[in-house]
Every structure is written in C-alpha cells, then in structure tokens.
Amino acid sequence: MLFLTIFAYVTLECRFPRGKCSCSGNVGYSRLSERLDEEEFEEEEEDYFINADRTEEITFYNENESAQSVVVEKNLCASDLCQLLAMKNRVSKSVHWSIVECWTDLGLERLLEDHEHVLAAYRDMRSFSSHTRFRYKFRKDYRKYEFFFHPQQFFPPNMLDVNSENINEQNGHTRTNQCQLQYMINEEGKCPVIFSFVWLRDNQKKTWSKHYMVLKEQKLFVSQRVQSIARFFRAAKEKTLDE
C-alpha cells in the first residue's frame, strides 16, 4: 500500500510552468570546471584594479570660490592640467597658473611642481585627509619661475663669487640675470650655504613636524633641532679656520 502511494505521488504531473522545473526534459545545464583557471582570474582582477586607478574626478577651486571638476588621468602632470583648467575657466593661458595643495585646518600650502602627477599627489593627500581637510586651488603664482627671471632676489651679488670674466667692463657691473643664473646652475660652481626650515609629514604617525635644513656643497642636512644646526655651523667654521 505504501509503495503504491509513493508511485502515485511521483507520477503526478508537475505543477510548475514548463521549463521552470528540473523535471523538464528540455532544461539542461553545463557542469562547472573542476579546477578554476587561476591565471585567468588573476589577470581579470588585475585589469579591473588597473582601470579603476587610471582616472578620478577631482574638484579645483578658483580665487572667487567657484570650482571646476575635472576627470584627472593617472599620468596627467600639473603643467598640462593648468592649461586644461585655464581653458575650462575661459582665462588666458600662462606659465604662472599653478595647482596649490591647501590644508585649510593647518594653514599650510604647497605648490605642485610642473612635472608632478596630480592624481598621485591627490591620493597621497587623501590618505591623510581623515585628520584634516584639504582642497586644490587653481591660481596664478608669479613666484613660480622668479628664480629664473630674477635670480638676484634670492642670491644678491655679494653672496656669490662670480669670476671676473663675467663682468661687463663697459658698464662696470655684473650681468646679473644671466651670469648669476648660469653660475648657480653650473654643477662645478660653488653655491652658498642655504639655511631654512620646512614642514614634513610622518607617514606612520600622520603628523606634521618642523625640520631645519642646510644645503651645503650639494649635500642636504636635516635636523629637528635648531641647536644641532648651530653646532654644525660652528664645527664647519672651526674647520675652515684650522685650514
């Protein structure tokens, strides 16, 4: 009796629509591969992340607080982006246009160099943005190439020992713009000792700290204590006197 009941239950007509149940004769399936192609999967995953990292939309603010959003590609440098932003803002193109990295809470600014990749710099800023706010500004900075146009502002004539052959006998003075610039960028020339300070970010601590820097004889010395720099100058002076 039990066997007949089970047989009758199995032979009943399926109540699901045709093709919606596994008992349908025309429904098939393909067996999954027993072994996944790991190399193909890794290549597709790598291509996905590469494409995702190639572009990103970034907002750039003008002096009047208006803004322009630009899709920045991976290898787009700051100089090319300045020309693009000048066109989008309908202003004349100029070498003085600059991208300025601004940390509003800290009151710090940094001018992006022409060769810098903007997207890489932006992502580096974003890794620190959980602690403070930042934005990019698009504005003119006439000091950008001032070193090349008027080098005497940074190195007065009495700071450099220019050879006598560079002196114009007719006017009795040095051709400042040309001679000083050529002398300072010459690898064999002796540049004066330069002392200044800079704010540096610690990637591990996510904080900014003040460092003192000395540029002497094509070597850069860095210290967090100004007393160490003072001892460095005294030691160098004593060494010169001994010689």
UniProtKB/TrEMBL annotation:
- GO biological process terms on file: generation of neurons; signal transduction
Write down the SUPFAM superfamilies for this protein, in alphabetical order. Ubiquitin-like
- Gene3D superfamilies from the entry? Phosphatidylinositol 3-kinase Catalytic Subunit, Chain A, domain 1, Pleckstrin-homology domain (PH domain)/Phosphotyrosine-binding domain (PTB)
Q: What InterPro entries does the record point to? A: GRB/APBB1IP, PH-like_dom_sf, RA_dom, Ubiquitin-like_domsf
Instruction: Give every Ras-associating domain span.
Output: 54-141
- Offer one Pfam family short name for this entry: RA_2
Look up the domain of life of the source.
Eukaryota
GO CC terms: cell periphery
What PANTHER family is this protein classified in?
Answer: GROWTH FACTOR RECEPTOR-BOUND PROTEIN, GROWTH FACTOR RECEPTOR-BOUND PROTEIN 14-LIKE ISOFORM X1
**By what name is this protein known?**
Ras-associating domain-containing protein
Which species expresses this protein natively?
Callosobruchus maculatus (Southern cowpea weevil)
